[in-house]
Design a protein that fits this description.
This protein is an alpha/beta fold. Helices cover 34% and strands 20% of the residues. It is built from nine helices and eleven strands. A six-stranded mixed beta sheet has the order 2-3-1-4-5-6, with helices on both faces. A five-stranded mixed beta sheet has the order 8-7-11-9-10, covered by helices on one side. Helix 1 runs antiparallel to helix 2.
Length: 306
């Protein structure tokens, strides 16, 4: 495109567009590009190209809907990913449905899930990718997905299942959370003994049930446990004179202002004339800082370009 756009939100959306795995995600990123595109007359050609591209995408998505074909290009690991692992009929699908926007098949028939199912859990203004993989004792069990996950969610209904799952995953390094599911079927004494056992072994665990509106389902607490399992920084960006972006960038602990700029777009840090910061790492709101300034969770960074 002939015009050079330095708006960090536009560049971030453009990067998301090129990394999108399906037309639906491309359309979301493209709409954001259009909303942040320059409004002056010199950018008229750019806006026209973006609008034309949007029409093509909308047509493509509509055709896919009519033919019933999936628009999914592939599965890409999210910035924060947790994988649900367990035996058949442990309740993995019910938990995935309760925590996310997905609609997996839920049935008492064994091995209903025969391929990975992805859902997005919204919590603390972040989006966490949850993946349910087929049962550990089935032929479709995806050991690779579990080995690369940041967090492992062991869904069990019996304490002995923990060791069985661990034996299946010798290379897994993700943090473990034990989800003792279907606890609505237990007596108070049974629950007490199970909790005592898990506490004695220092497991990070939750007793839960995926029954809707069950008073002790623990779903909100489980969401927080999953979120806390990730070592991340939530960094917001803003344009001069405007409010911060609604969703933060996810950064690693120890990241700098330069790292944040480079995450928006490779090479973007070289175009920065001034950076200001608000939040936990600032001495005062709007402090001017250098590119080597270390960020803290919930910081807000404003970039001015050359």
């Amino acid at each position: 495109m002939p015009i050079n756009v330095n708006d960090p939100e536009y560049l971030s959306a453009e990067k998301a567009f090129h990394e999108a795995l399906n037309p639906e995600d491309q359309l979301i990123a493209l709409n954001k590009m259009i909303s942040h595109a320059p409004s002056h007359k010199g950018a008229e050609n750019l806006r026209q190209q973006l609008t034309t591209r949007r029409k093509k995408l909308e047509t493509q998505i509509e055709k896919k809907k009519k033919t019933g074909k999936s628009t999914q290009i592939g599965i890409k690991k999210g910035e924060m990913q947790a994988v649900l692992i367990g035996k058949t009929n442990s309740g993995k699908s019910s938990i995935l449905k309760t925590l996310t926007n997905s609609s997996p098949k839920i049935s008492e028939i064994k091995f209903t899930t025969n391929e990975a199912i992805i859902g997005i859990m919204n919590h603390q203004n972040t989006q966490i990718q949850l993946v349910e993989i087929p049962a550990i004792e089935g032929e479709n069990f995806d050991k690779g997905a579990a080995h690369t996950a940041d967090t492992l969610l062991f869904v069990i209904t019996d304490l002995e299942e923990i060791k069985k799952i661990e034996k299946k995953l010798p290379l897994a390094e993700g943090k473990k959370i034990i989800i003792f599911n279907k606890s609505d079927q237990l007596s108070p004494e049974e629950k007490r003994k199970i909790k005592a056992n898990l506490q004695s072994k220092k497991y990070n665990f939750m007793m839960t049930s995926s029954i809707p509106n069950w008073p002790e389902n623990g779903i909100e607490e489980l969401k927080e446990k999953i979120f806390q399992s990730f070592e991340i920084l939530r960094i917001y960006t803003k344009q001069p004179g405007k409010e911060k972006e609604k969703r933060p960038m996810i950064m690693k602990p120890g990241s700098t202002v330069k790292d944040a700029a480079e995450k928006i777009l490779k090479g973007f840090s070289k175009k920065i004339k001034q950076a200001k910061i608000w939040g936990p790492s600032s001495k005062f709101g709007g402090q001017v800082i250098g590119l080597n300034h270390k960020l803290k969770d919930l910081d807000v960074v404003e970039f001015k370009t050359k």
